[in-house]
Amino acid sequence: MPFSKGTYDLELAQQRLIMVIEEEESDTISGFYIYNNGNAVEQKHSFLLTTNKNYLFFESDSINGKIKKINHPKPMHARFVVSGSKASIFFWKNRRQLSYTKRQTYQPEISSRYKQKQFNKIKTDYDLVYGNAKGYWTDTPYLDDPYIYILGRGVINFWKGEKDLDLKLD
After folding, report:
1. Model pTM greater than 0.90?
2. In this structure, how many other beta carbons lie within 10 angstroms of the beta carbon of residue 83?
3. For 25-36, what is each residue's pLDDT tens digit?
4. Torsion angle, alpha carbons of 148, 150, 152, 156, to 10
5. CA–CA separation, 113 vs 101, rounded Å?
6. Dist. CA 115–CA 130, nearest whole Å
């Protein structure tokens, strides 16, 4: 069988697809595919690929057909014959070229870097001053006051002028 578990980029008659094979048995493959139109969200279509002596039969809700003649010099090319509701009454229009490539999977290396303790003693400081800036408010103690009082105090702070306010890390 030319397909195994994994993700494939397909091109079927100038239509790009992404196919994900999830399950693989001796004579059937199943998974899903989406049309790769470059949209943020694409509809997912499930498929079943069964083998016969001469061809593979692809069944899904939007595409049905035979995958014939997988070229051995170019193993990533095949001929696809559309059948079902998408088939044309003109048999020569149902033949389409199919090309596919399997995506490489990346297996990250798992190290013990973040599992081992790096420091024995850690000291935590709070309210570290790292700079200052001009401003009017040092804190907001007015959260429970009526809005008109908050505005009045803001005007008073404005007339007093800007202060150097400490910028602190918590």
Report:
1. no
2. 14
3. 888 889 999 989
4. 180
5. 35
6. 31
